[in-house]
Design a protein that fits this description.
This protein has 336 residues and is of the alpha/beta class. It is built from 11 helices and 15 strands. The chain is 39% helix and 18% strand. The structure holds guanosine-5'-diphosphate-alpha-D-mannose.
Length: 336
């Protein structure tokens, strides 16, 4: 029997891939969007805009959230959030509203309007403390920026609702997930966009990055969409890590992308004096601007997704280089 799913934040990167996956599974897919007049370009790109129903939710008003939650969903996937660490440092109060107040309003709405609905809450590797070892669901919690603080609070709130009201709630601890649908506020899309511009236009100036020695565990968001959907199918609700398990620096991401685009990246200097040139031409590709540094950028964290592999039969399909190739192909076609 077709089931009815709601995705908050359906027009974002992961929401769009999740909508595509749920449609492939035969579900009826709805989503919330801040505005119905802006074109949801990711849904259009995936060719599914006409197959999903959008509900406007332009302010965090508990009454409106309760009204939407009362529409008989089997699943709610709560992805809508302020998801940029950099933005959360600039707008901490708005981040609390977007990530803590909003999540709480959805949890309360599910409890009151549709307690049989299964609820997925998107959390982040940012709530885990770096230890040097791959991190799992039991790893120690820590939060070193407003985004992480709010996601940790939303996760704890979800656990309180799960334990106190016997609701089916899952927290997904998502490590970095990227794709051709990523916004350039995030470093991978910024790198791909600017490198493609440099490859297309010989006169394009170099661009700036922050801490290129920062390490992240990168995956493709499409892989996570499958895991997120599967996480609400287990008999008992549990929390799951989604990650590739491999740590790479931002510099490594940059170097791989630059090489795929035909450059020969060569770095010189240290710290904020680092510069990358194309050794084939001497052209400067990137310089460092301390304005993009974070006050606290923790040591790299890799994730251990063993629980998702064992209990959900989940594993990532898209390798690191394939992720970069997809991002490059998409961006080059957009610049045509
Ligand atoms: N955004 C950005 N811009 N980051 C830069 C830049 C730059 O110019 N230069 C270096 N970086 C470094 C940041 O300091 C950070 O260490 C790393 O690149 C990744 O930054 P982001 O792409 O902004 O992502 P994030 O890791 O902070 O957060 C993403 O992943 C989390 C999961 O681990 C987001 O998707 C979060 O929503 C998500 O929870």
């Amino acid at each position: 029997m077709p089931q009815k799913a709601l995705i908050t934040g359906i027009t974002g990167q992961t929401g769009s891939f999740l909508a595509q996956h749920l449609l492939q599974l035969g579900h009826e897919v709805h989503g919330t969007s801040r505005s119905l007049t802006n074109e949801p370009w990711r849904l259009v790109h995936l060719g599914i805009r006409e197959r999903v129903t959008l509900h406007e939710l332009n302010a965090i008003v508990p009454g409106r959230i309760a009204e939407i939650a009362a529409q008989g969903y089997d699943y709610i996937f709560h992805l809508a959030a302020e998801s940029s660490v950099a933005n959360s440092l600039k707008h901490p109060t708005d981040t609390v509203t977007a990530n803590v107040v909003q999540t709480t309003a959805w949890l309360e709405a599910v409890k009151n309007q549709s307690p049989d609905c299964r609820f997925f809450n998107a959390v982040t590797s940012e709530v885990l403390a770096a230890t040097g070892d791959p991190l799992d669901e039991d790893s120690r919690r820590s939060a070193t920026n407003p985004y992480a603080v709010t996601k940790l609070a939303s996760m704890n709130m979800a656990l309180v609702f799960r334990d106190s009201f016997d609701l089916y709630i899952v927290n997904g601890l998502l490590f970095n997930h990227e794709s051709e649908l990523r916004d350039t506020r995030f470093v991978t899309a910024k790198i791909i966009y600017n490198l493609c511009l440099l490859a297309k236009e010989p006169s394009a100036p170099p661009f700036e990055l922050g801490n290129v020695l920062a390490e992240r565990d990168f995956s493709h968001a499409e892989d996570f969409a499958r895991g997120i959907a599967a996480s609400l199918q287990a008999e008992t609700p549990r929390d799951y890590i989604f990650a590739s398990g491999a740590l790479r620096t931002v510099k490594e991401f940059f170097d791989t992308a630059a090489t795929l685009l035909g450059f020969q990246p060569e770095w010189s200097g240290d710290g904020t004096d680092m510069v990358c040139q194309d050794s084939l031409t001497g052209r400067v590709l990137v310089t460092i601007n301390p304005a993009f540094y974070r006050p606290v950028d923790e040591p790299g964290k890799a994730g251990n997704a063993k629980r998702a592999c064992t209990h959900l039969n989940w594993e990532p399909n898209i390798a690191f280089e394939a992720l970069l190739r997809r991002m490059i192909t998409f961006q080059m076609s957009r610049l045509e």
